[in-house]
Specification:
The protein is of the alpha/beta class. The chain has eight helices and six strands, in the order H-E-E-E-E-H-H-E-H-E-H-H-H-H. Strands 1, 2, 3, 4, 5 and 6 form a six-stranded mixed beta sheet that branches. Helix 6 packs across helix 7. It is globular.
Length: 226
């Protein structure tokens, strides 16, 4: 289940007019920018510690801007697993065996290489992915595009101070259902990508203007960023 390609293809960013991962060619000339440095990052965790309440990385997925898989691997836990969370993730002991999973330090190194110098798109990067707490990696906040914190998405649903789950964002903003069965980090990453692409032009325009368009994550997660 492991695939790695360190060189995403150079693409151009276009204003999407549909709710799929296809672009409108008519709008390309007015808003194209290079997106070869954009990747998505999504993870699944199992539970360790007392009652299985501590998250331990079990699967990590990275895609390019087209949603093509650059890395997708199970990761060997470094602590005893108390709760595999199989009902929601499909992960079991066989998936995290030495024959099926990647060593944590190796996976960590590959992730660091893939995201270094790139803009990372995802959902709750500060929590569910948690560069520092789960992956042990820090990343510049300005090099993240977290759809959970993007204020226009919250405003579109009518509650700008509330954070919504990824399925809720997809249902209200893309009219698409996800996570209907088990959680899938590849599906989650592509969903976050589609949300970002639907507003990428105004998002990047705000960034270029020095106007941060997102809410801030809780201050307790500040150590996750450079």
């Amino acid at each position: 289940m492991y695939h790695l390609n360190n060189t995403p293809r150079p693409l151009s960013l276009r204003c999407p007019t549909t709710r799929t991962r296809k672009f409108s060619a008519a709008s390309q000339s007015s808003c194209s920018v290079s997106v070869s440095r954009f990747v998505t990052l999504s993870t699944l965790c199992v539970g360790t510690g007392t009652g299985g309440s501590t998250n331990m990385l079990a699967r990590v997925t990275i895609t390019d801007f087209q949603g093509q898989t650059l890395m997708d691997t199970y990761v060997l836990p470094t602590m005893p697993v108390v709760d595999y969370r199989t009902a929601s993730t499909g992960i079991d002991a066989n998936a995290l065996s030495a024959n099926s999973a990647c060593n944590f330090s190796k996976a960590q190194r590959y992730v660091a290489e893939l995201i270094r110098g790139r803009i990372v798109i995802g959902y709750c990067l500060w929590s569910y992915v948690s560069f520092y707490l789960v992956l042990g990696i820090t990343h510049p906040a300005a090099m993240t595009r977290d759809v959970a914190l993007f204020m226009p998405f919250r405003a579109a649903i009518g509650k700008p101070k509330q954070m919504f789950g990824l399925p809720t964002l997809m249902h209200h903003l893309m009219r698409r259902q996800i996570q209907m069965g088990r959680l899938d980090s590849l599906e989650n990453g592509r969903a976050a990508l589609d949300l970002y692409r639907s507003h990428s032009v105004c998002w990047e325009a705000a960034m270029l203007a020095g106007q941060w368009p997102c809410a801030l994550p809780p201050s307790t997660f500040s150590r996750c960023y450079l």
